[in-house]
Specification:
By secondary structure, the protein is an alpha+beta fold. The chain has helices spanning 5-16, 28-35, 39-51, 70-88, 107-112, 115-125, 140-149, 210-213, and strands at residues 24-25, 55-60, 63-68, 94-102, 134-138, 155-157, 160-161, 166-167, 170-177, 187-192, 201-206, 221-227. The strands form 3 sheets. A 6-stranded antiparallel beta barrel has the order 4-5-11-10-9-12.
């Protein structure tokens, strides 16, 4: 769907008002002030966003509640990617994450060995991942930085279908683990579109078995530098 500039502007303002994480109570008068328009225009804009499936809009006895839909959020992410191409295409931006090693759910071993993902990792990341992921529980400062990766484009990993089921996509970011033993080891942070992990967990795939190679155990602190 091709969105007009006015619609995109309104969607951005709703996101800035907090309508991404949870429904916000919002009057047409308040929204008119946010987008600097008449109350009639603000009310019409909310109706249009609702009609196009970009927001959930619910009117109750205590007011009007608005929240962005998944489609609305994806439109904002696409716009963010375009701005990244304009302002950051000639330079890499790095984020450092700190976390403690934890035992995962065991799903990484299965997914990293699926041919539909494995071929993409080899072609796009330049290495064949060891079956499984290294899982880090991030500290509070790193959790805030982790959210930034959600809006960066990264290296896209496409979903695919098998005879039995559909597998979702995701994205990867090359990373460097800050450890003397990790010198030269190719690794990447992977962010699936669908995951059972909370947002304070970071998953890393690598060409080697990192726990063994770096002599890690649960609770050990690891620092990793992620390149966007």
């Amino acid at each position: 769907m091709k969105m007009s500039g006015d619609m995109m502007f309104s969607l951005r303002k709703l996101a800035l008002l907090g309508a991404v994480e949870q429904p916000v109570r919002l009057s047409s008068v308040h929204f008119a002030g946010a987008i600097k328009s008449s109350v009639q225009t603000a009310a019409r804009r909310l109706q249009e966003l609702d009609r196009e499936g970009l927001v959930h809009r619910r009117i109750t006895a205590d007011g009007q509640w608005i929240m962005l839909t998944r489609s609305g959020i994806e439109h904002l992410k696409e716009e963010c990617y375009e701005y990244q191409e304009i302002f950051f295409s000639t330079q890499n931006v790095e984020f450092e994450f700190v976390g403690c090693v934890i035992t995962g759910l065991g799903e990484g071993e299965y997914y990293t060995t699926l041919e539909g993902y494995k071929r993409q990792f080899e072609g796009k990341l330049g290495f064949t991942p060891f079956p499984g992921t290294l899982n880090l529980r991030l500290d509070s400062q790193s959790i805030a930085a982790r959210e930034i990766l959600d809006v960066w484009k990264g290296i896209g990993i496409e979903g695919f279908e098998s005879e039995q089921r559909t597998f979702g996509g995701g994205k990867c970011f090359p990373c460097k683990i800050i450890n003397d033993r990790a010198e030269g080891i190719k690794s990447a942070v992977i962010i699936p579109d669908r995951t059972h992990y909370p947002e304070d967990v970071l998953e890393i795939i690598s060409q080697v078995y990192l726990r063994c190679e770096l002599q890690l155990k649960d609770g050990d602190e690891i620092r990793t530098r992620v390149m966007t």
